[in-house]
Amino acid sequence: MTDKSPSPALGVSGRIAAFFQRAQITPLLALVAFLLGLFAVGVTPREEEPQINVTMANVLIPFPGAAVKDVEQMVAGPAEQVLAQITGVEHVMSVSRPGLAIITVQFKVGVPRTEALVRLYDTVNSNADWLPRDLGVLAPLIKPKGIDDVPIVTLTLYSTNEASGPYDLERVAHSIEADLKRVPGTREVVTVGGPGRAVMVEIDPTRMAGVGVTVADLRQALASANLGLPVGELISGNRSVAIESGPFLRQASEVGDLIVAVRAGKPVYLRDVATVRDGPPPATRYVWHGVAAHGAAAQPSGSAASGAAAAAAAEYPAVTVSVTKKPGENAIDVANAVMTRVEALRNTVIPGDVMVAETRNYGASANDKAQKLITKLLFATASVVALVFIALGKREAAIVGSAVILTLTVTLFASWAWGLHAQPGVAVRADLLDRHPGRRCHRGGGKHPPPPGAASAPHPGADHPRRGG
Prior knowledge:
- The protein is an alpha+beta fold and 469 residues long.
- Among the domains are: 56-149 and 429-465, Alpha-Beta Plaits; 153-195 and 284-292 and 313-360, 2-Layer Sandwich (Alpha-Beta Plaits); 198-279, Multidrug efflux transporter AcrB TolC docking domain, DN and DC subdomains, CATH 3.30.2090.
- The chain is built from 13 helices and 17 strands.
């Protein structure tokens, strides 16, 4: 006797599954989905930094000629109090330098970038009365920062030649900046750690007294000729001044030809009362690169081999070149192109005695983590298939394995088409900005470490971090 009872009605999912079971195009669709997933694995940009919406900005407030304490008390302190009142702000940090206050504002995760910047701009302009404009404070400058301001590659230049110092290394670094900026996908190439360049004016009190010229006369003449650019503080026993090069003061000979006074109908040139030379100004920060001796850790403590290995280790003055990428670019491709260009510059733009150490490569680390992620996904899929095979059988295992693999491939392709990136190591970084050791937050503080591979120590009195509660 045959059971002719009607089969239960299928729901929406059942009818869709039945349709694809009967359709002859189903194997072709599965193959296309698998190939699209493989394509997405190859072309999806891979990054180590998460593309999350964390808006940050630097507010630069120039105060030409002011000392660090004056900048902190008259500009940085009031600015922190005003900017901390903005809705959605999580941290406010500041660094006081001679003639400049840098206030960093970090908004909470999820605050739209445009809205956050508009709030910041409106707050700065509507509270302009806290700036002592009568004392020479200039208008604030707002520079937004984002996740793409984190360098993907940092190169540390150092030399074992004792005659090559940070000043020489900085000149080499500046010479390769233009070449690295030509690499497709790069955005900013910046050198960190060099002393910079200045024209040093060494005052001779005897000659100044002979013609009746004072230090104030010299500073006024230098500032006027330099179009208002900062003229450094007196150093070396009040007998030396560092000048920042401006449009009309580019080298020592031009500075020496300045007329600082007129006596008895004759002009008094700066070179008549001072010695003018071109060179590095007094250092405000240092970068050192340490090279560990091979096999030092494997030697027993106190042995002769250990002492020889420790003697082989050394530290050298260095500068660091940081490279950032444009939004949406593949960090792996950009980093590889940068390193290829650096190799091409060796023994040409980069002298043979200058070593280049790769102290950070987010492209390589992002690629390694992406490969580990894919390996773990394959291992998890194989584990599920094996468990289903043991429990139900090979037919069920094949169905589950195919479904999981096709789901992953379609998801990867959809993510790539939507513009998402592969970011295996998602962690919010607080080093989006120019790092300053010892800088603390005004609210919810925390120190920011220096860039990896570039341990810099600020010169005493160079930067004055604002330490807030």
